[in-house]
Amino acid sequence: MKTLKQIAVILCLTVSLSAYNQTNNQTKVSLYVELSQNMTSPFIKHFLETNFTVGSKIDTKKGELSFGVKYQLYGNVNVPNKKQTFLYSPPTPPTFWFTSHLLGVVAEYQMLKEKRFNPFVRMAFSTEIATNYHYEILDEKFVPITSVLAQTIYHPGKTPTSPTYQYDGYYYVSTPFLFGLSVGFNFRIVKGFSARISVENNYRVIQRKSYSWTLSKQKNIDQTSKLNDRPIEVGLYDNVACNIGLRYDIPLRKRK
Questions:
Q1: Which residue did the predictor score with more confidence, 235 or 26?
Q2: CA–CA separation, 54 vs 27, rounded Å?
Q3: What DSSP state is assigned to residue 40?
Q4: Rounded (5°) CA angle 79-74-31
Q5: Phi, psi of 226 (to 5 degrees)
Q6: 236 phi/psi in degrees, rounded to 5
Q7: Which of 59, 80, 70 shows the shortest CA–CA distance to 34?
Q8: What DSSP state is assigned to residue 155?
Q9: What is the DSSP string of 72-112?
Q10: For the purposes of burial, counting CB atoms within 10 Å of the CB of 80, is it exposed (0-12), middle (13-18) or buried (19 or more)?
């Protein structure tokens, strides 16, 4: 975990210095806010992302290449939905019930830069530096959920009114690595301010811990105090999302 964060910080500094030393470039600050709809998760489907980027912009013959260091605040948004996906699914979590602070690097190429409506390709690498969801519950597919669902186990020779409830709990630790690739269109409203729509594919390396227990009564209990000695499990969470957002660019300095 510490090694990955150190690598991310070194990569951020390298990209920043590289951008600074380029000729015919422009240093800029960007603020990008977008609403994301997850197309692959059955539980949490909507997220709000706020990206703050400091980097450089290089003009090319047919487009514009920008890259820099970014900070991202990522959290779920509760959008009312009367349709229930599963009969016994956990309740929808409240807004910002899961939040993640990430630091990384981003590169983007915009084509047809002189046009008001132009396509772009964006790629980003990030690592999590803080979260409010440490040791909170995940499902078996590494998706945050509000509660652990019990499996009812009936014992031979005993009445069905006295079953044992089996709980298999998974608990979030961190996201040491996140890679995102998005393609979309940028609509320039005024100079430096634009609206965006895109499709994004994210690959998250997620760390979690697991714990199983049984109860004679259907009751969920806090197991976080017993997780410190449990081994860390690592999994890859792949999701596709549709994004819509607004971006504001502030030019700071141009070098020739």
A1: 235
A2: 8
A3: S
A4: 105
A5: -100, 5
A6: -105, 125
A7: 70
A8: P
A9: EEEEE--------SSTTPPPPPPTTSSEEEEEEEEEEEEES
A10: exposed
Instruction: Extract the tokens encoding 117.
Output: 């409506």
2 vs 195: CA distance, rounded Å? 37
Tokens 């409010």 -> residue: 132
Q: pLDDT tens for residues 74-103? A: 888 876 654 544 444 556 677 888 899 999
- Which helix (DSSP H) or strand (DSSP E) does residue 2 occupy? helix 2-21
Per the CB < 8 A criterion, the answer to whether 131 and 195 are in contact is: no
CA atoms within 13 A on the CB side of 232: 12
Q: Distance between CA atoms of 107 and 55, rounded to whole angstroms?
A: 9
d(CA 72, CA 154): 47
pLDDT in tens, 153-204: 545 555 555 566 666 678 889 999 999 999 999 998 888 889 999 999 999 9
Question: What tokens appear for 228 in the block?
Answer: 């410190």
- Tokens, residue 6: 């150190």
Distance CA 115, CA 118 (A): 6
Of residues 181, 177, 168, the one with CA closest to residue 223: 168
Closest by CA to 237, choosing from 178, 173, 162, is 178
Distance CA 211, CA 168 (A): 6
CA proximity to 129, closest of 174, 166, 86, 169: 174
